[in-house]
Amino acid sequence: MEKITVIGAGNVGATCANVIAHKDLVREVILVDIKEGVAEGKALDIWQTSSINNFDTRVTGVTNDYLQTKGSGIVVITSGLPRKPGMTRDDLIKTNAEIVIDVTQKAVKYSPEAIFIVVSNPLDVMTYAAAKAANKSCNKVFGMAGILDTGRYKAHIAKALNVSPKDVHALLLGGHGDTMVPLPR
Length: 185
Hints:
Elements: E1 3-7, H1 11-22, E2 28-33, H2 38-47, H3 50-53, E3 58-63, E4 74-77, H4 93-110, E5 115-118, H5 123-134, E6 141-143, H6 145-161, E7 170-173, E8 181-184
């Protein structure tokens, strides 16, 4: 795979682009945002650490230029408004669904074969919205909650037991929220 696109250059999107670059998973990461200059600045910061952190992945930031995403093998969607104090994930449904549908349609136009990974909240609903907007089979659009929730779960267990998270084996199943089922081992 040559290219991964990350849509949304906020904390989650920029961190995602940074991790992908550091792992040298692809030749190029495209970071897209709606705010002028944000993706460009964050991408430049990441790219400028390449010689220090020893990675080759080129990181490019763009403002609403989906043509630059053309041919991406994976599209990660982190776009959407974050929750404000007192808000529930459900309070974000209408606004974030509109955003996710819009960016999905733009990305699929230039990368019709891409796999989509949705991070936006409320995750389960946004993953469904992206799947419908992309008009793809269910094995091409994923929500990433399972790994995030499992990572959080393992970190809390490790802290409580005062052990390394690498030594904790646990899994969470179910939707991102109150329906999760912990499986400690």
